[in-house]
Amino acid sequence: MFFLLKTLLSALIIALVSTLARRYPGFGALVAALPLVSVFGMIWLWLETHDPARMEAHVSATFWYVLPSLPMFLFMPWLMRCGIHFWAALASGCGLTIVLYLLMIWAGPWLGISQ
Asked: How far apart are CA 77 and CA 80, in angstroms?
């Protein structure tokens, strides 16, 4: 039952963002930029474990893994301004993010990030 609740709330957020963005692109972007997935993830983790050490590790790692995802939000619009089709820009943005995630995983131990 708890899994169903988590799934429904997560789906509701995605539907809300896409609906808002269709009518109000800036406001939809603001809602999408809110760390709602991270906050819900923290809430679910806490409710399921009540483990402060696990929560600290999760929140700290989340910070470091957000950083490699940010360039995609500059790269995709730039590609589209250069005439690249949305799907190709999205794939390229995701590819860039994957490469940056792999670099973060590789550099993580030097930054004190536990895997």
From this structure: 5
Q: Which amino acid is at 108?
A: G
Task: Label each residue of the chain as H, E or C.
Answer: CHHHHHHHHHHHHHHHHHHHHHHCHHHHHHHHHCCHHHHHHHHHHHHHHCCHHHHHHHHHHHHHHHHHHCCHHHHHHHHHHCCCCHHHHHHHHHHHHHHHHHHHHHHHHHHCCCC
| Whole-prediction pTM | 0.75
CA neighbor of 29 nearest in space, from 13, 43, 18: 18
Q: What is the pLDDT of residues 56-87, one digit of tens each?
A: 988 988 888 899 999 999 999 999 999 999 99
